[in-house]
Write a structure and sequence with these properties.
With 283 residues, the chain is of the alpha/beta class. The chain has one domain: 2-enoyl-CoA Hydratase, Chain A, domain 1, CATH 3.90.226. It has 9 helices and 10 strands.
Length: 283
């Protein structure tokens, strides 16, 4: 049954196709600000063409220890991903928020595991067209035993343990096996809900209203308390620059924006490549 529990937080079949991991290294854009991208499908090793949650955790640890970094921006564009590693990344984000400001900016999409990961950030900002939420957990089991029977194929699972081998292709998925998988899904989803409720300071009724798997446009996400404000990546950077920094147009600030424009172009090219591979798709 465990092989059916990989795509629990919103990654569809296409986004789980093999691909090159996205880099998790931070980009220092000046004024004590570092940017870390969470793009594509989230998994522990990033082997599905998305971001490695383990790599992001390691990067956050380095940034916390770096005295030159005072604020961290997580730049999000992800449909979600696997349950493995997601809770640990959430915990790392929440722990980082206790030591330094960590702002999550949602460019286009922060769904499922991606939203779980950022729920403990100091502040969440989204572009006005961004989609946020999809709070829930699922697994898929394809019962093709009927097809196998029509083809004259009978699959035998030699096992020790009632629930071992549940969901093996060609075998019937029994009511007891389904109930057991539902138990696991509920337990994992409870961690997701607890993280969102604590991180966003929602009441039980508020949490219930937004945790049925639906995804919300930014204006609704703000109304429901899932994000703090609607803005742009530039506005987040500007707010991170600090009141005592030079205004745009001075040499220091012009250099800051020049580096930013180059890095944004690089991130855009990376996202296009990921999209073409299917790494940025969602259901």
């Amino acid at each position: 049954m465990l092989h059916n529990l990989f795509c629990l937080y919103g990654a569809d079949v296409q986004s789980l196709a093999p691909g090159r991991p996205q880099p998790a290294s931070a980009q220092h854009v000046g004024n004590g600000v570092a940017v870390v991208a969470l793009a594509g499908t989230l998994s522990r090793d990033g082997r599905h063409g998305g971001t490695s949650t383990d790599a992001v955790r390691a990067e956050l640890k380095n940034l916390v220890a770096d005295p030159s970094v005072r604020k961290i921006i997580l730049q999000i564009n992800s449909p979600g991903g696997a349950s493995a590693g997601t809770a640990a990344l959430h915990d790392a984000v929440a722990a980082t928020a206790k030591q330094k400001q960590i702002i999550a900016f949602v460019e286009d999409l922060a769904a499922s595991a991606a939203y779980f990961a950022i729920a403990g950030a100091t502040r969440i900002v989204a572009s006005r067209s961004a989609l946020v939420g999809a709070i829930g957990t699922y697994a898929v089991v394809e019962d093709i035993s009927g097809m196998a029977a029509k083809l004259g194929v009978k699959v035998h699972v030699i096992k020790a343990g009632e629930f071992k081998g549940a969901g093996v292709p060609g075998t019937a998925f029994t009511d007891s096996q389904q109930a057991e998988m539902q138990r696991v899904i509920n337990d994992i989803n409870a961690q997701f809900l607890a993280a969102v409720q604590q991180g966003r300071k929602l009441t039980t009724s508020q949490l219930k209203a937004v945790s049925d798997g639906r995804i919300w446009i930014a204006a609704d996400a703000k109304r429901f308390g899932l994000i703090d404000e609607i803005g742009t990546f530039e506005s987040v950077l500007a707010s991170s620059a600090g009141a005592n920094q030079p205004r745009r147009g001075t040499d220091a600030q012009t250099d800051f924006y020049s580096r930013l424009e180059v890095q944004q172009k690089q991130r855009g090219e990376t996202f296009v490549k990921t999209w073409r591979r299917g790494g940025a798709c969602s259901k």
